[in-house]
Design goal:
Layout (H helix, E strand, L loop, with lengths): L1 E6 L5 H12 L4 E3 H5 L9 H11 L5 E4 L8 H5 L2 E5 L3 H16 L17 H8 L5 H13 L3 E4 L2 H14 L7
Parallel strand pairs: 1-3, 1-4, 2-3, 4-5
């Protein structure tokens, strides 16, 4: 199974990828931010990102979380399931602050982006509330959903939690979330 998770910053893409990997027993999980950034949020080489992602999608099963629409777009065509976390901007901002508070107690580092300490600044807040939700991005999400083999759109965390609960029961898995 090949699962692509997309959504707004702070929606929980990383957490969902980890949960689904346990439910479906998929070891190949890729957090696209880990390809985008090196230590201390330094940008990685574009060709390195593309090469690693291109090789990753050749695997038999995988979960990829992250947007980066223009990079290796064929992953959207070959995924068996596309999940879009379409949450309210204020919920996402609250989640960003919750993550930051939690990580502050754990040395700030984001496990999915080794070497990068979690940070919140005005630029990122603006991204979560506005820039990451511009008309072109919303249009792209809609297009991806329409063209997916199979797609799920969750508009709030309760919808997602109900879905995860159903998966847990169906797959005889103890509640992982």
């Amino acid at each position: 199974m090949k699962i692509q998770i997309i959504g707004y910053s702070g929606s929980g893409k990383t957490t969902l990828a980890e949960v689904l990997s346990k439910i479906y027993k998929i070891d190949n999980v890729l957090h696209l931010d880990s390809l985008q950034f090196n230590d201390n949020w330094e940008l990685n080489e574009k060709n390195d990102f593309i090469n690693k992602l291109t090789n990753f999608i050749k695997l038999d099963d995988w979960i990829i979380e992250g947007n980066y629409f223009s990079k290796v777009s064929q992953r959207f065509e070959i995924c068996d399931l596309l999940i879009f976390l379409n949450y309210n901007r204020f919920f996402c901002l609250k989640s960003v602050f919750s993550r930051h508070k939690r990580l502050k107690n754990e040395n700030y580092e984001r496990f999915e982006i080794p070497g990068c300490k979690d940070k919140i600044d005005l630029e990122f807040i603006n991204w979560v509330l506005f820039k990451g939700r511009n008309r072109n991005k919303r249009k792209k999400y809609k297009e991806l959903i329409q063209n997916a083999k199979s797609a799920l759109v969750f508009k709030n965390r309760n919808e997602l939690l109900n879905y995860i609960e159903e998966l847990n029961e169906k797959n005889n898995v103890e509640n992982i979330w």
